[in-house]
């Protein structure tokens, strides 16, 4: 599938007011903060099913910031959001397949009715709409690294399907609105993101490894640890998201790290930076997770001038420091994204 290049504006649009769904989540809260710092008024919408008020507590009271505790997938939600908005960023829903396992129907609601409601708000106000999709739309792809024109291989009835197929449906709905109605809508496919405010009780690899290392517990690695991930620090991801939001691109754009490392190496990096005496503990691998994951970011690099800038060591240190400050009890095992 061939895509035509759409020029990036020389300067970012003068957004006055933005709606961020899922704004109290890990990534959503960082986006809210960046927009507020840039002088944009922000309505942060979240039902707190997976987000947390702790993530946005530092924004409370800042001029232009407003928190709205609502479910974006609920009937009548668009009418409860008076706007008007210049920008609608749809980040609602579980952040990963692991987070989705206990709330599959809610995840599908966020992807279906939630996306439709967010699109309706953008269409009403003539706002730029951006969907936060995910690398899981590629499933366990044959192509490596993953380009945006890769169709992917996804099992629609697998344990991960509510997350993976939900993102694919949300992309189809966004594209249909752009094609049929002329909605100014775009899509970012986000790869593994890390940084402060990641959920300490989540089951992704990096936060689990950090929590285990700080506690001096064994770092549990699925299989032989040879599966790969490409991590990017949250500040870099937010910058990529906003650059795509500033354009009029419709086609999906990969935003993610290009430093591909094995899960075992991620665990060893954590042990090294924490100074922990923890050891690695291998356990039987889990089915359905991709063996390799790395985005092809050529499009983002060449058209948007975007590439990750924060070195992994610096990003890991910042993240570890945040976890050390807010250590959480308990030690659930890792469940790879």
Description:
The chain has 337 residues and is an alpha/beta fold. It contains ten helices and 13 strands. Helix 5 (161-181) links the parallel strand 5 (128-134) and strand 6. The radius of gyration is 19 Å and the shape is globular. Mean pLDDT is 89; it is low at 1-10 and 328-337.
Short description:
This protein has 337 residues and is of the alpha/beta class.
Described by the principal axes of the CA atoms, the overall outline is globular
What kind of sheet is the major sheet? 7 strands, parallel
Which parts are unreliable, with pLDDT below 50 for 5 consecutive residues or more? 1-10, 328-337
Count, helices: 10
What percent strand? Answer: 15-25%
Please, what is the average pLDDT?
89
**Number of extended strands:** 13
* Cα distance spanning the termini: 27 Å
Helix percentage: 25-40%
Structural class: alpha/beta
Neighbour order of strands in the largest sheet? 3-2-1-4-5-6-11
Question: What's the alpha carbon Rg, rounded to whole Å?
Answer: 19 Å
SSE topology string: EHEEEHHHEHEEHEEEHEEHEHH
């Amino acid at each position: 599938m061939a895509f035509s290049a759409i020029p990036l504006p020389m300067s970012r649009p003068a957004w006055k007011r933005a709606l961020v769904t899922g704004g109290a989540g890990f990534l959503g809260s960082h986006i809210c903060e960046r927009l507020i710092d840039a002088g944009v008024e922000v309505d942060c919408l979240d039902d707190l099913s997976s987000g947390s008020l702790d993530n946005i507590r530092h924004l409370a009271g800042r001029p232009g910031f407003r928190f709205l505790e609502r479910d974006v997938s609920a009937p009548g939600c668009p009418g409860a959001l008076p706007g008007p908005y210049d920008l609608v960023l749809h980040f609602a829903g579980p952040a990963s397949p692991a987070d989705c396992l206990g709330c599959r129907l809610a995840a599908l609601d966020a992807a279906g009715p939630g996306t439709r409601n967010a699109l309706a708000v953008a269409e009403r106000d003539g706002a730029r709409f951006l969907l936060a999709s995910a690398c899981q739309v590629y499933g366990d792809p044959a192509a490596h690294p993953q380009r945006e024109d890769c169709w992917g291989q996804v099992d629609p009835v697998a344990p991960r399907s509510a997350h993976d197929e939900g993102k694919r449906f949300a992309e189809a709905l966004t594209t249909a609105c752009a094609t049929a109605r002329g909605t100014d809508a775009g899509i970012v496919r986000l790869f593994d993101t890390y940084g402060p405010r990641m959920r300490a009780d989540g089951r992704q690899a990096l936060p689990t490894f950090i929590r285990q290392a700080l506690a001096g517990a064994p770092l549990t690695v699925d299989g032989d640890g040879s599966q790969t991930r490409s991590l990017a620090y949250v500040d870099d991801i937010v910058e990529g998201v906003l650059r795509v939001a500033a354009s009029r691109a419709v086609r999906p754009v990969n935003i993610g790290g290009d430093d591909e490392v094995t899960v075992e190496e991620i665990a060893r990096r954590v042990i090294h930076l924490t100074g922990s005496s923890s050891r690695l503990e291998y356990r039987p691998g889990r089915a359905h997770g991709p063996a390799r994951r790395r985005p092809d970011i050529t499009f983002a690099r060449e058209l948007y001038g975007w590439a990750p800038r924060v070195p992994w060591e610096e990003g890991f240190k910042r993240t570890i420091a945040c976890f050390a400050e807010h250590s959480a009890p308990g030690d659930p095992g890792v469940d790879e994204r």
